[in-house]
Amino acid sequence: MSIMENKSNEMDAWVDNAISDYITPGQYKSFFLFAGAGSGKTTTLINVLEYFKITHKDKFLLRRKKIAVITYTNAAVDEITRRLKFDSIFQISTIHSFSWDLIKPFTEDIRKWVRENLNEEIADLEQEQSKSKNPQNKTSIDRARRIEAKTKRLVELNDIVKFTYNPNGDNVHKDSLDHTEVLAMTAYFISNKILMRQLVATKYPILLIDESQDTKKELIDAIFEMQQAMPEHICVGLFGDTMQRIYLDGKENLQNAIPMNWQTPHKTLNHRSHKRIVDLINNIRKNVDNKSQLSREEKDGGTVRLFICNRNSEKFELEKIIVGRMAEITKDQLWNDDKDVPGNSNVKTLILEHHMAARRMGFFDFFEALHEIPRYHTGLLNGSLPGVSIFTKVILPLLHAYRCNDKYELTKILKKNSPLLDSKLLKQSEDQIKNLKICKEAVDALLQLWSERRDPTILDVLENILGSGLFIIPESYYPIIARPKNDDKNIEKNESDKEFVSSNEELLAWENALSQPFSQIERYNDYLSENSKFGTHQGVKGLEFPRVMVIIDDEEARGFLFSYDKLFGAKEMSATDLKNKEAGKDTGIDRTNRLFYVACSRACDGLAIVCYTDNPGAVKKSALTYNWFLESEIEIM
Ligand SMILES: Nc1ncnc2c1ncn2[C@@H]1O[C@H](COP(=O)(O)OP(=O)(O)OP(=O)(O)O)[C@@H](O)[C@H]1O
């Protein structure tokens, strides 16, 4: 009987039992669970771990062993940790923090590795430099700077007592390692140091990796080597879908590299999406590996539409019209219920780059100003950028408490953050009432900035606080706002904040960012919140939403790794694309095809693709030729 005839919602249920068998202590079988979007890979991971807890937890605890679960984002770490009820038998982390935890005790090995690596990098750069015809051109000057910086680091290496690393931030201190170094070193140690392998096998005899298609290839190779060297002592389980490989570090054709003696269970059902969406993602996948999914029995509906729009349209207006059209087509009014209230939206809009959300949500100027500085990127996107937290973590909550008339919350924020209510100061004070009055006046003066629906600039807010001393302001802001004479009561003591501005370019970036209206901070903060109605095509990996609108616009995205224009036939392939294709290499179109698959497969019930193009005819033709959409599902706006 074929799979089609055998369709039932329980057809893949055997996979959970099989994996529970594979990870049974004493009879380890490493495995790769390969399955498409929405097939319940993460759900299976949780199910088998819950079962393991019931059956083997005590034995594991007695021997002080844990199961390591590695996943891609901090959000996924939190989600899996929560679903496993914070049980200490599981070590759930991102690959970066997992790697750092493994290597951080080995200071001398780290030093040696960094030294050798720096020597190699310097030698390579010097060799390239020696070939340079003009030492005054930009590339040569940049290269000379890099050689100088690396040589300086080499000299300072011996003085480092302890290396540091922050998996979630920018690592800019003298003793810090960067993300690439930590992963490369971990891979090297696992491949070359028996002690490290023994350590992993002793601590984490079961190592499970979710989203393994995007896990750094060197690490995957090292883990394969380790498992093959000690198959009885370590069980490796990879969960993944090669069609969802969207980052460049992931291992190409992972499925072909799986050791022969591994188990390779497979799932066919898509539990997430309705049939029409499953059919679409099957067709998007067709050119790549022809792996097809079935939808659940009861999910036999679903709506997909392609809206082809002129690149020069008034985009935000058009997107509002499109959600209206989707409401009409699907008869689901929640498409329409998009009131521009971030966090309260029923439609998830997927953009390619963050600035597209910044433009749509109204915090573009603030965001772009700071985005000019490459070392701010991580912090800006995860909300940890030093200097911004005074606005997002102190002033915004204060403003919110005031607007909600929540006096309890307002007092709590002041007590926690204001030096004017510092408990030591109050204890020593002879007139506490006076202190409280000063604080109240400072708060009133600050809130006054928003009176009569005004929208002060961020700088207005900073200057106000500096004047009243209501909150501590990071010292780095001082060159931007006039530093008060004979007054250093406000100097921030936090080291990282002290150093957040270190160059003239950075100063200019901040000056520009701070001159924007404070409402941009509010919107930026909304964007960072989990409930934002926007997400990037890449960032929503692993997530799902009932209604999804995918925005496609290469020009606005300004990216170079993806090209929807080429995928949709609106632009010719370049000579390099053709050469890469001929050589069987991964091309930009392949990458875009996979990204498109990830974005579309997030939708459960309804999916609107909004494609901005200069060539509507070509887009429509491709969409029909690829069999992605029916004529009746395409609207040229
Ligand atoms: N056996 C099942 N029965 C019913 N629903 C399921 C089952 N397995 C998974 N689901 C549901 O299907 C959806 C997708 O599951 P999950 O996120 O685990 O899939 P995934 O394979 O990890 O997806 P992706 O690769 O797209 O991130 C979730 O809403 C989940 O609750």
Automatic annotation (TrEMBL):
Specify the UvrD-like helicase ATP-binding domain's residue ranges.
14-287
Residues recorded as binding ATP, renumbered to this chain, are A35, G36, A37, G38, S39, G40, K41, T42
TM segment ranges? none
SUPFAM superfamilies in alphabetical order? P-loop containing nucleoside triphosphate hydrolases (SSF52540)
Any one Gene Ontology molecular-function term assigned to this protein's record: DNA binding
Q: Which Gene3D superfamilies does the record match to this protein? A: P-loop containing nucleotide triphosphate hydrolases (3.40.50.300)
Annotated InterPro entries = DNA_helicase_UvrD/REP, P-loop_NTPase, UvrD-like_ATP-bd
Q: What is this protein called?
A: DNA 3'-5' helicase II
Q: Which organism is it from?
A: Chitinophaga sancti
**Gene Ontology biological process terms, A to Z:** recombinational repair
